[in-house]
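Q: Give me the 3D complex with zinc ion.
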Amino acid sequence: MSKEKIYLFDTTLRDGSQTQGVDFSLQDKIKISKALAVLGLDYIEAGWPGANPLDTSFFNDQPDVQDSTFVAFGMTKKSGRSAENDPGLSSLLNANTKSVCIVGKAWDFHVDIALNITNEENLENIKETAKHFVKNDKEFIFDAEHFFDGYKNNKEYALSCIKSAYDQGARWVVMCDTNGGTLPYEVSDIVYEVSKIIPGANLGIHTHNDTENAVGNSLAAVIAGVRHVQGTLNGLGERCGNANLVSIIPTLLFKKYFKDRFVTSVSEEKISYLTDCSRLLDEILNRKPNNRAAYVGSSAFAHKGGLHVSAVQKDPKTYEHIDPKLVGNNRTVVISDQAGRSNIISRLEKLKIVVDPKDPKIQKILDEVKDREFSGYSYDGADASFELLTRRLLGQVPKYIEIKNYEVSVVKNKDTSDDLNSKARATLIVDGKEIVCEGIGNGPVNALDQAIRNNLENIGKYSEYLNDLRLIDYKVRILNTGTNAMTRVSIESSDKSNNNWFTIGVSPNIIEASFRALIDSIDYKLYKSQAPANSK
Ligand SMILES: [Zn+2]
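A: Here is the predicted complex, encoded as structure tokens.
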């Protein structure tokens, strides 16, 4: 049995850009297009030429996207003018793409309420638009907006809308669940019925995630006959998002039912860029990646608990549905109170810390981790602090900047300003020399950080290692450990090579907890940069 191809259509740059708070620049669009091309998507819908200057200039000067095809988006011609005289359609014809995707209404309710034209006029607009692009040698893709709601409300009319496009030579007729309220069993039934009229080889699916079923609906549509799937990276899209291609693609590639029947243009080699591609979008949007994202999240292959960990080490299949490396992700072993020696050994291996499994130091590390977890530390996700803790116990981390003392004040003076003012003063010792630093910040931690790092030129040999250190996230949690409340602070840091690391500090006092997390961040950076030790 020869396998059928499922065509993959990405609309991150068009439908995805409808998301609240998302505003792609030209550079962002270029970066995302190139990443989608590396992944091997068939279609990249890059925007609406003529609708705004940014999209127009993108299409005027398109980046190289290898074997992927750019698609220009627009809508059916306006009533009362010919396709030839519709400026919207002209912008698409001139956009210099092989393919165009045109959205049109397929729900009579919308035709009446939103367009305020007759059902017949809408059919005519679809037909003339399709004819116009096919005549001008464009690959024509018709997005039938609200198709499922339209089908439920007036089946004959919804079908005549898509037939109007198909009969004029549309390459793809895409059924859209625009409001996202359709459930998988309905998608299956409706697609199956539609495929009796239009061949599945010309049908596509476009879903939204308003019932958390966008991925399931897309897969149901494939099973029922469609051969073209639209979606976005990380499910980006308005309201609850579009269908998430980052979940759909590996399912099509690795799950037996689909693998046995279908191929896609994303090869097994290319899909190893999937995690990078997903994180790139988060980076561009300045969002923290979703740890729990299927396939690509940092927790997707994280194991906690001694039993799970020892089983995973014997055979990963015991607790993993696929090998994380296939999608460019990693297995993570999370340290917890239940953890045994196997957990520690596995985590050390991941950090490339070589210790003989029989070495008594392993027990020492385990005891220390347990003690600290009892007092409120949690090394789940604080990899840098964990690495420092173990390397310090193994005697591998030299002493760097010594903090002799510090003092922080927070002042609010109603007479001068409503703002809180934080000041910090710290005495550091570097190579036997005392250095007094001062900083001002919007909070005590910021002021402490400023005090240490604003005086880099004064801290001699360490300045060159710390000038690109940035604190990018700061989180506080109050823990009730029994006797008294503890504060746990976690800090995410980054540097110019885009390394990210997480450190943690715990104390009954929020300033001290913050300070410990901050010092771990600095020490981690110095250790990784192989900075020299502080000499007495
Ligand atoms: Zn949509």
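A quick observation: The radius of gyration is 29 Å.
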